[in-house]
Amino acid sequence: MDLGTAVPQGNERLEREMDGLEGEAAYAETAYALPVSYALTGLRVATADGARKAYLASGKNPLVAAECVRAFVGGGVEEAPYTGFLGDTELRRLGYSLVDGSILGLALLVGTPENADAAAAVCRELQETYMLTFLAGGVTEVLTAAGVKVGPGYRLIPLGPGGMAAVHVADVLARVAMMFGGVQAGDAGRLLAYARERAKAFVVAFPGLSEEEVAVLDALRPLGVPVLSVGGYEGGEWVPVGADEAVGRGRDLREIRVKVTAIPIPMACSPAFEGKSIRKEEMHVEFGGGRTPAFELLRMRPAAEVEDGKVTVTGPEADAVAEGSALPLAIIVDVAGKRMKKEYEPVLERRVHTFLNYGEGSWHVAQRDLIWVRLSKEAVAKGVRVRHLGTLLAGRFRADFPDLIDAVAVTLITDGDAVRAARTGAEEVYRQRDERIAGMKDEDAALFYSCTLCQTFAPNHVCVITPERPALCGAITWLDAQIAHEIAPAGANQPVEKGEVVDDLTGEFAGVNRFVKKASHGTVERVCLYGMMEYPMTACGCFEAVAAVLPETNGVVIVTREYRGETPLGMTFSTLAGTIGGGAQTPGFLGISRNYILSDRFLRAEGGIARVVWMPSQLKEELGERLRGVLAARGMPDLFERIADERTATTLEDLVAFLETHGHPALEMDPII
Hints:
This protein is of the alpha/beta class. It contains 22 helices and 23 strands.
């Protein structure tokens, strides 16, 4: 196809389509009307006449025409597996990753590749080099037929079956500029500058495009988006390339610098896979998650004791068990380095969660001795074994912390007795870490700290960590967050100015509100750190326990991740977790760490620990003497026995009877609702 002819002819056809528009149109789930039109002209298009006005105001920009045509013909909606127009919520998650550097750039693959394997290789290279990739046209069908998994979780986003869906990349650029770049609607100059300087996007065009689609792609070039032609397009400003060189050439043109550390395991390893899930029917084997004992521990060791890169597996391998099996697991990471400090251990340990999720066929949630890990059937069939998790961890720790770590060795244990024996030592380490923060008070700290590590799974969740309130996962204390910020100043743990006290009882601070609103992408405007009924803190999915109001008792039930049975609420932990997970702010429900229960700030707005009417016996025994000591210090030495568990009450009726018999103080407190 000759571009010199195709582009003007495509523009003419788009203009005729604009002339034929009728009625009204809008994209769903956006505050930016038709974003390209709005960003370029400042006009909010809602009617056909408004669309033509914006088209003329933009200088008859083909992107505006294509956007209007898609909006007026179908509203940008596509059937699965295609996403069509991406709403603001999804875009904020993706766009924030682009702004904070975890995505280095954008790529658009459009058209119909003639060689499926070559197209799949292009996608794999994009994933492994931290690129967010959009698909438009026949490329999605070609890739899925070749076995490539697509979707936002894989950073391969199928916009639509037709090439005109490519215009949604332009509306992504426009909204990212307005959401994150401070670009005002109608400021076309700043929009173009932002796209050229910050977006770092390029197009790979395969054969099979219409003249209109060619015109739309060509109109991306003024935004600083080069178009690379893999075949069949000549005579214009597009850059001819072979499929095998397309990604490298695109990165060079946009000056995208990436250092990729190859990890020798039989599955891809990239942040592109961090947001995926491995469902039960997809997994070959799982570890922990309540079915088996499992834990993770990172330890500093003398250099002489750490053989760099060594991976040791004790117990059965993944291919030695049947599909659907559950094995115990201990993950012990030993590190050595001249700049390494013992205080850094829990901060680095939390990266095990991140790194294992980088594997295309591995999945990890939770922390410490609550971890849950899965390997997919597909990964095991390709040769992935438990030992490869160790290779992945060793490689990522060395690559991500080269100035801190000189050597890494990983021990993986899948023998049940050995895991249980090793876990005893790990639990002692956890206890010692928790004691470091004991005695510190929130009023003594000038700064709190944030944690956004879980935004991969819950993009609007922001954990606020204070001296008296550890992270929901239980793995990061205020001191840990302070150290994490020291190690990585641009990382997930950022200092949070407390600011003016809005309400001391509920723990609402003006500075915290400002930070949370920004870090949650505007979703959460207020948060009360010491309560659960008004503006409770959001949750992801890694919390250790859920606290929930039970109105009939005027109290609060606490359910831990390990507890598998029914509760007096009539809900299991899984049901409760689904109620509050994903960054939701749900009054009356709160994700918490186990140690937060011992804090003076625990549910202070609702009356504190005296509100707790039920918790699993395992949690009571674990908190044990520490909880008894806290209760005695607060003048409630007999409250421990007045808190029910599954041995004394499993139904609401049984719980009410127990509380009345034992005279629980919650029954006499002010109504919680």
